[in-house]
Design goal:
By secondary structure, this protein is α/β, with parallel strands linked by helices. It contains 13 helices and ten strands.
């Protein structure tokens, strides 16, 4: 379908094997009077899920042709390549594009089968892009935008690529939205990403790291950097195993009054206990005056806890006030309130709680050791990935990519 502003083949289920197959669909576009202008003004390229059922060997030349053409488009600021199976052996055209396209503002890469090695290359390309943007500014160009959005979820980035990604975010300090869900990143990698990378993103508005592993180490790192994000609106750390003490640390950090714009907080399945719940309720009441949605299902407290009732009443009160002031509120009402607490875990008994207290000293010692090892572990893993990336084939990643390419996930 073509119009004056949009050309789309979405949902047509096409398999275009030859130039003749393509010609039928692009002829109306080619004949359109706006094509020449479109070449200068095209802003968004949504190329998600375009290589379904293709062999891995077919993807690099096709991707190279597409991205080489897109490099010539000065207004192209958004590219979505999600749900395409790249893996290690098919990432080269993408790396080349990302390191050069200075107009880029929004990058969306979900479910591409990257793995840590290709993840390193993608991150390094974005770091190179920052240098390219800075050079363009020094040459007097005034229309060079910041990289604002990085979405790279479900890509098995793991700890091995976190050194590279931390460098990326340390360079692109103007980034506003980062989503890196379900990447198998463990606590050392999370701590490094936060402490050495995202700490510098002072304009951050949305951070979603759900379904990675924090533990107390990552929770302490988050608590240490979150106050630097004064503009943050949404924070997603659900299903991250923050731990009971980690939940308290994060809540206390949010209660310091530096995150007054926070509207949505996702904290499901994190082993947060009644003490942590109370800390979040206090922070919400005293400092998080913009908070309208908090998700806490799957944690370790009773639904009858006074903290639950306090949060529910407070958010309902804010919701009612917002409804009075907004005639279109019905369309937004699901953005408000406390989530359904249908899967809470049982609270610890007094005996179990006592045992937990005794374990704290041991945890503190382990944490100190982890902190000392964290940077070294991540850096060594990253160096190992980078050393082999040029010659060694990542059979696991490419097998995953090959499987994805034949499915349509």
């Amino acid at each position: 379908m073509a119009s004056s502003t949009v050309f789309s083949l979405e949902g047509m289920g096409l398999k275009l094997d030859t130039a003749e197959h393509v010609e039928t669909h692009i002829k109306p576009l080619r004949e359109s009077s706006v094509v020449k202008e479109t070449k200068k003004t095209l802003e968004i390229a949504n190329l998600a899920d375009i290589f379904t059922s293709r062999l891995l060997s077919e993807i690099p030349p096709a991707l190279s042709s597409l991205l080489t053409a897109l490099l010539a488009l000065p207004s192209l600021h958004t590219i979505n390549l999600s749900d395409n199976a790249f893996g290690l052996n098919t990432q080269a055209p993408l790396v080349d594009f990302l390191s050069q396209h200075t107009p880029l503002r929004h990058l969306i890469l979900n479910n591409n089968g990257l793995g840590p090695r290709a993840g390193v290359l993608i991150a390094n390309a974005l770091t190179s892009l920052h240098a390219k943007k800075e050079s363009a500014k020094e040459e007097g160009k005034t229309d060079v935008p910041e990289l604002e959005t990085v979405v790279c979820g479900r890509n098995r980035l793991e700890n091995g690529s976190m050194e590279a990604w931390a460098q990326t975010f340390a360079a692109h300090t103007g980034v506003k939205e980062v989503k890196m869900v379900q990447n198998g990143i463990r606590q050392e990698g999370i701590a490094h990403l936060l402490n050495e990378g995202l700490r510098h993103a002072k304009s951050l508005r949305v951070l979603d790291l759900q379904d990675n592993t924090f533990t107390i180490l990552g929770a302490r790192a988050l608590a240490g950097v979150v106050n630097g994000w004064s503009e943050i609106v949404e924070l997603g750390v659900g299903d991250c195993l923050l731990s009971a003490r980690g939940g308290v640390l994060v809540a206390e950090a949010l209660g310091k009054g530096q995150n007054s714009n926070l509207e949505t907080l996702r904290l499901q399945y994190n082993d947060i206990d009644a003490k942590g719940l109370k800390a979040f309720a206090t922070a919400t009441k005293v400092q998080l005056h913009a908070l309208k949605r908090i998700e806490l299902n799957g944690n370790k407290f009773s639904e009858d806890d006074t903290g639950v009732e306090e949060l529910r009443e407070l958010l309902e009160e804010r919701k009612d006030k917002a409804a009075e002031a907004d005639s279109t509120f019905d369309e937004k009402k699901d953005e408000w309130g406390l989530d359904e607490l249908s899967d809470l875990e049982e609270e610890e008994s007094d005996e179990e709680a006592g045992e937990s207290e005794e374990e704290k000293d041991e945890e503190e010692e382990e944490e100190e050791e982890q902190q000392e090892k964290a940077a070294r572990t991540v850096k060594e893993a990253d160096e190992a990935e980078a050393e082999n990336v040029a010659q060694e084939k990542d059979a696991n990643v490419d097998a995953l990519a090959d499987k994805l390419s034949k499915t349509g996930l």
